Amino acid sequence: MRRVCIVIGIALGTGASAAGQAVAPPAGEPAMVRAAGMALNDGALPPGTLTVRVVQGAFTGDLTGTMVDLDVTGQAPLHAPAKAQGRAEFAHLPIGAEVRASAIVNGERLQSDAFRMPAESGVRILLIAGAGTAGASAAPAAALPPGHPAVEATPAPAAVSPAAPAADQQGVVMVRRAVIAMTALAFAAVFAQWWRRRRRSRTSGDVTQVGA
User: Fold this and answer.
1) What digits encode the pLDDT tens for the residues 107-132?
2) Residues 6 or more apart from 161 whose CB is under 8 A from it?
3) CB 147 within 8 A of CB 75
4) What are the beta bridge partners of residue 90?
5) What DSSP string describes the chain?
6) What is the torsional sign of CA 124, 130, 134, 139?
7) How far is CA 179 from the centre of its chain?
8) Are the C-beta atoms of 53 and 86 separated by less than 8 Å?
9) Which pLDDT value is given to residue 133?
10) Does position 151 have pLDDT exceeding 90, yes or no?
């Protein structure tokens, strides 16, 4: 009986563990969202260089062609389109100048934190459209002034990989079925053991009566 109980416990524990794995969210996505809008030093970039990457929800949704604006203290705003991998690049920025990057995607204003250009390296920034967290303001974008590059060329939204709630739900259903099946097998083992003991008990009783 103890062995059967152990089998049941293992079956249920394995099913619960698998269920937890089936609905667990991707590990990299929260970290990516937390990094949105933050200025990160990049030793691969020369000092005075800033790259701004604009994506839609995930790294697979690069928004190539999106116009990125850069406010630099004491200078007129700068503009650059996002090119390969959704990155816009600004070079020869004054060391120590305070800058802030922003972009407008489908009426949503994305904005980075204000920071000062470091002397030891370049800086990279990630802006995520549709994240609803840091680096993406849900407020409607203000009207762009005449002559803004984004007024004349508004890029088409990039194709975004669909979310996978259906896949997660399917995984949960499969795990539940597996748990039910393993539980049924465990109870079948209990019944089989009980039936064998009962037959042995009857056989022993019959032998005792014959011997008497």
Assistant:
1) 999 999 999 999 999 999 999 998 65
2) 57, 58, 60, 61
3) no
4) 50
5) -HHHHHHHHHHHHHHHHHHHHHHPPPSHHHHHHHHTT--EEETTSPTT-EEEEEEESEEEEE-TT-EEEEEETTS--EEEE--GGGEEEE-SPPTT-EEEEEEEETTEEEEPPPEE--SSSEEEEEEEET--STT-EEEEPPPPPTT-HHHH-PPPPPP-PPP-HHHHHHHHHHHHHHHHHHHHHHHHHHHHHHHHHHHHHHHHHHHHHHH-
6) positive
7) 28
8) yes
9) 39
10) no
For 175-197, what is each residue's pLDDT tens digit?
778 778 888 888 888 888 888 88
Looking at per-residue pLDDT, the higher value among 174 and 73 belongs to 73
- Joined together, the tokens standing for residue 208 give 């005792």
Contact 109, 141 (CB under 8 A): yes
Report the C-alpha gap between 92 and 82 in whole angstroms. 18
In the chain the first and final C-alpha atoms are separated, in Å, by 32
Most confidently modeled range among 62-66, 97-101, 131-135, 188-192: 97-101
Kindly report the average pLDDT of the chain as a whole number.
74
| Residues 198, 180: Cα–Cα separation, whole Å | 27
Beta bridge partners of 50: 90, 123
Alpha-carbon span 79 to 71, nearest angstrom: 9
Rounded (5°) CA angle 165-134-148: 105
Model confidence pLDDT, tens digit, residues 31-55: 667 778 899 999 999 999 999 999 9
Which of 127, 59, 58, 53 lies closest to 90, judged by CA? Answer: 53
